[in-house]
TrEMBL record:
GO biological-process terms attached to the record: amino acid transport
Topology with respect to the bilayer: Multi-pass membrane protein
Organism: Limobrevibacterium gyesilva
Biological classification of the source: Bacteria, Pseudomonadati, Pseudomonadota, Alphaproteobacteria, Acetobacterales
Full protein name: Branched-chain amino acid ABC transporter permease
GO molecular function: transmembrane transporter activity
């Protein structure tokens, strides 16, 4: 029994790394724009189909396609905010929420028209490969996804903390009017931050594809988990997104082991409710 629990813990941690990467994009967008991106799941679906097409039609391994898909999704996110969301909303938070919801509806239905509702999977040379670590069998693709996710999270933190562009993004997030007086254009920073947040989805899609399916509704599987992680870790907190992702991954894995696959997600809801009751601002959040 101890070995089974240990295996569930390891599997949960490895899965939580990719969850954290998906949530990082969401928490970045919230931290800068101060809105919840309702199109997050739909854009993850677009990224997964982009990675799948490169692999299925172009023969490009999903891991090797990561820079391409991340760059493509950055462009999609930047263009969406610059030419659609920003113009439709006119900077009003409520209008931005509705605009992202509209984008989600359009993308979901376009995917249904183009790809139908069929589920697709991709097998690579690493899909079924495992490492023997003592008594445990560890999935190689999940280890790769975990390590790359944490490296990308660290790179994103360094970019935000150490570069002039990152400082400009943080300045606009804290005080857009003051940043405007310093010569920073908030509308451009908003588009840039949105693009970076969506680029995280491009990276996550490539890391997920070797072990997960893709369909027009796949975004729904991850978006609720991502929202839970962001609130659990603290809205706008990078460390909170990482820790929250790992915690939710472990909770989901142990819940599936103890309660069964159908009832396993209940554990996520219980942890979520407990944190909101004990610390409403999240694990790394603070009252402003």
């Amino acid at each position: 029994m101890a070995e089974i629990i240990a295996a569930a813990l390891v599997n949960g941690l490895l899965t939580g790394g990719v969850y954290a990467l998906v949530a990082l994009g969401l928490t970045l967008i919230y931290g800068v724009l101060h809105i919840v991106n309702f199109a997050h799941g739909s854009l993850l679906m677009v990224a997964m189909f982009a990675a799948w097409l490169l692999a299925a039609q172009g023969g490009i391994d999903p891991y090797l396609a990561l820079p391409l898909v991340a760059a493509f999704m950055f462009g999609v996110g930047w263009a969406l905010y610059r030419f659609v969301i920003g113009r439709v909303s006119h900077g009003e938070d409520r209008a931005i929420l509705l605009a992202t919801l509209g984008v989600a509806v359009v993308l979901d239905n376009l995917a249904l028209v183009i790809f139908t509702g069929d589920t697709r999977q991709l097998e690579t040379d690493l899909t079924f490969r495992v490492w023997e670590v003592g008594p445990l069998l560890v999935s190689v693709p999940k280890v790769i996804s975990f390590v790359v996710s944490l490296l990308l999270a660290g790179a994103l933190w360094a970019f935000m903390a150490r570069t002039d562009t990152g400082r400009a993004i943080r300045a606009v997030a804290r005080e857009p009017d003051g940043a405007r007086l310093m010569g920073i254009r908030p509308d451009r920073i908003f588009a840039l931050a949105y693009g970076i947040g969506i680029a995280c989805l491009g990276a996550a899609a490539c890391l997920l594809l070797p072990t997960f399916y893709v369909s027009p509704s796949v975004g729904n599987v991850f978006v609720l988990v991502a929202f839970t992680i962001v609130v659990l870790g603290g809205m706008g907190s990078f460390p909170g997104a990482v820790v929250g992702g790992l915690l939710i991954g472990v909770t989901e894995s142990l819940g599936g082991l103890l309660l069964g696959e159908s009832l396993g997600p209940i554990g996520i809801s219980l942890v979520f409710i407990a944190v909101l009751l004990l610390k409403p601002t999240g694990l790394f959040g603070s009252v402003r």
